[in-house]
């Protein structure tokens, strides 16, 4: 019996196959693949750097935006309305445009809950009883002044105010006296008294 | 953790390092997988040059898409799937061009650890090669993946897109044919 026959007899076929070592790959494509890998790695490195830079920029922008809208003392307020009252903390940010004509203000924090809570406490109320209504009125005034109000609304022009109120002030030169039959025309308007 | 899982984990570390721009990581990855990929490709194409081309193409595909490559599962499975897909494409192209199949004498195995091969062992090696190459492609594929890659039938089924039972049948038929052929060759 030959050597091969003995091998076949003694071992199952799969065990026989396992004895053989698969052939190795030639090295012809190694250099080309490595060169491609080098180029790809450089590109990947640059891409990683770009992504990290963008992530940093996004984080900085996010942080900046958070500080801009955050009602914390960290923000740079032009006007701050904190501590109007020991029981009322109001923070406001004001942005003044370069022309100085537009003033936008935003009320950021109103700790009414704290105020009401403290006002309801008997111990504190003996010591200090805040006037909630007065404070709310004050707050509303602040809001009117600083929230969503255009300069025109905050400091209305005389004509707008006149139209709204239906009256004219004393500086107007065409006042009509209801007790006079004819309008009293002041000097200087080129109209002779009737 | 078994050996294969450890290997997969270290593959994934190398891939992540390469994605960050470390070219040496690819060198290690290539050195680790090119031989098994080539052996698999050789069994699919039955031609050394085509096998080499298919493996090279599979690695190039990985390099091209490495930026979006999601590290999950086994890199070897990914590579084998790429090799298989390219081998099938290459066969289709040849059929379309109506090229004559070029059957060269190839060796699938080499002497273990580079030692000199006794004459009888060399003869048996050659017989095993011929017997394997005489198998239908699907059966040869199942035998090679099971015996030389240690894949389970489930893993092979996932790779070749067939059911586990089908793959197990292909393997059994393949082994039976090998036994008959090798017994005949050995003169039993």
- H/I helix tally of chain A: 8
- Unreliable stretches of chain A (pLDDT < 50, length at least 5) are 73-109, 156-160, 167-178, 180-194
Q: How much helix, percentage-wise, in residues of chain A?
A: 40-55%
Oligomer: heterodimer
The largest sheet of chain A is:
2 strands, antiparallel
CATH level 4 superfamily of the largest domain in chain B: RNA polymerase sigma factor, region 2, helix turn helix motif
Distance between the termini of chain A: 151 Å
Query: For the residues shown, what is the average pLDDT of chain A?
Result: 61
**How many strands of chain B?**
1
Rg over C-alpha atoms of chain A, rounded to the nearest angstrom: 42 Å
List segments of chain B where confidence is low: pLDDT < 50 over at least 5 consecutive residues.
none
Shape of chain B: globular
**DSSP helix fraction of chain B:** over 70%
Main sheet properties of chain B: none
Order of adjacent strands in the largest pleated sheet of chain A: 2-3
Shape annotation of chain A:
elongated
């Amino acid at each position: 019996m030959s050597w091969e026959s003995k091998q076949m007899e003694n071992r199952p076929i799969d065990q026989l196959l396992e004895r053989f070592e698969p052939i190795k790959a030639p090295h012809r494509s190694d250099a080309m693949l490595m060169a491609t890998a080098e180029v790809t790695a450089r590109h990947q490195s640059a891409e990683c750097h770009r992504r990290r830079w963008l992530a940093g920029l996004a984080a900085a922008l996010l942080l900046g935006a958070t500080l801009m809208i955050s009602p914390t003392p960290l923000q740079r307020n032009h006007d701050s309305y904190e501590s109007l009252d020991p029981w009322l903390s109001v923070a406001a940010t004001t942005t003044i445009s370069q022309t100085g004509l537009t003033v936008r203000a935003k009320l950021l924090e109103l700790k009414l809950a704290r105020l009401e809570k403290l006002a309801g406490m008997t111990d504190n109320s003996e010591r200090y009883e805040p006037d909630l209504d007065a404070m709310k009125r004050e707050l509303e005034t602040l809001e009117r002044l600083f929230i969503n109000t255009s300069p025109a609304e905050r400091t209305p022009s005389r004509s707008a105010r006149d139209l709204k109120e239906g009256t004219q002030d004393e500086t107007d030169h065409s006042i009509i006296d209801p007790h006079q039959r004819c309008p009293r025309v002041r000097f200087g308007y080129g109209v002779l008294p009737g | 953790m078994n050996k294969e899982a450890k290997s997969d984990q270290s593959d994934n570390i190398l891939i992540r390092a390469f994605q960050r721009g470390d070219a040496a990581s690819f060198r290690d990855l290539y050195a680790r997988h090119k031989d098994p990929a080539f052996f698999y490709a050789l069994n699919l194409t039955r031609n050394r040059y085509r096998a080499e081309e298919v493996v090279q193409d599979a690695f190039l595909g990985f390099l091209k898409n490495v930026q979006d490559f999601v590290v999950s599962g086994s890199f070897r499975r990914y590579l084998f799937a790429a090799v298989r897909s390219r081998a099938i494409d290459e066969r289709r192209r040849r059929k379309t061009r109506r090229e004559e199949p070029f059957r060269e004498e190839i060796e699938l195995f080499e002497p273990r650890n580079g030692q000199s091969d006794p004459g009888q062992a060399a003869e048996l090696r050659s017989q095993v090669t011929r017997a394997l190459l005489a198998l239908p492609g699907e059966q040869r594929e199942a035998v090679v993946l099971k015996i030389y890659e240690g894949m389970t039938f489930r893993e092979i089924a996932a790779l070749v897109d067939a059911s586990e039972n089908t793959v197990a049948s292909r393997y059994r038929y393949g082994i039976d044919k090998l036994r008959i052929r090798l017994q005949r060759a050995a003169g039993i």
